[in-house]
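This part of the workshop introduces the protein records we will be handling. An example says more than a description, so a record of this kind follows:
>
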Amino acid sequence: MRPGWRDWLAAELEKGPAAHGWVEDQRWTHLVSAEERSRARRRPRWEALPLAAAVLVLTVSTFATPAHVRGRDFATADMTQTPVALFFVAALLYLVYALASALWWTVRYARISLRPLATGLWLTAGALAGMTVANAGRLGLDVMRWHGEQASAWLTYGTQGLLGLVVPVFIVGVTYADVMMRMASARVWLQHRRAYRRLRPLWDILHEAFPQDALSRVPSNGWRDFLSLRGTHYPYYIKDGAVLVRGDRIAAVGPREQIERLAPEGLSVTAVPEGTLLPGLIDSHVHLTLDGGNDPIETARQTGDEALLEGMAERAQQLLYSGVTTVRDLADRNGLAIRLRDAIAKETIRGPRILFSATALTSPGSHLHYAKILDMVTTDAAQTLGITDAGQLAEGQLADLIAVDGDPLSDLGALRDIRIVVAGGKTVRS
């Protein structure tokens, strides 16, 4: 952090919100919906009551059961012994309650869901209904045996048969949506693979015509290529490449020898011979006001604006030094993220470029494959945020760059070893 940032902080706090035009600067609004805190706290306590009652009855009846009749299953248990009957009745009562509750919530979600999730939820709901009925039947059998009555054969075989039918349906229901999505992904993957292989002659001709632009492929396993999406979308990089930066923009990208011919004499050069250069990372969902502690929201509520902005500045600097050059902050307080953004833009303090939503709108009491992952935090993130001048190594892009030891395309852990961070054409870590 540069000297004098605390003075800037004090001056900004004295200006107040009106000095910054925050209303005009708001681009995103972060909407959060959740139950009120008091209701969210009450529900688990109410749910604990039937569970505690069932555990209490099970424990007392276990100790009250004579030793010579313990350890028997449902079919062979001596239900004429009251402690034994109470044990099974209490267990089945709670099981029926739990299954009925699960059925209620499953039906609610199934009504508002789309296929294939809705189909899986309705199958699960049907299975839960069958389990509820079957266990209610078993509860009736227990009561009959407890009173010394002969258990009805049709009720016995009916509950067994119903359970045997609905358990497989339950398994199908909870896995249905995932299986359908994977099948759809497999169809898309197969189409892409066929299209890629049909275009292979074109790739060969282009490589022969422009050998200087040929890219090197990441080493990989043949069987892994055959069975995964990497068999269609190959990650490539330039061996012995270089990037030329002019001001805050990338002027050229290509092989090192080619870039050296374009560079003016005396230009400062930073080399990472065994490393990899990639665009600065973009985190599209951060909360700079939250400290990451056990209860960050409550901590933020109890912290004054001055101390909160100080923590936000420190966290912004940590993000920058870890290779994140652009962030989208979702929900601050009193426009603190906007002040922080302005200070970073004026180079009063160091931090990533900040896109912000300002103050959040929430309900009362509520809470505030390697190559693909790199795409998610660079190119894809830029497209999602509508950023056209960052997220890739290309001419005209902002010179937001990071250099890491090793190759993150084959080992994502290389991102832990940040060697160089360039933000807006200025080296902030080396």
Observations:
- The two ends are 15 Å apart (CA to CA).
- The chain is about 50% helix and 15% strand.
- The first strand starts at residue 31 and ends at 32.
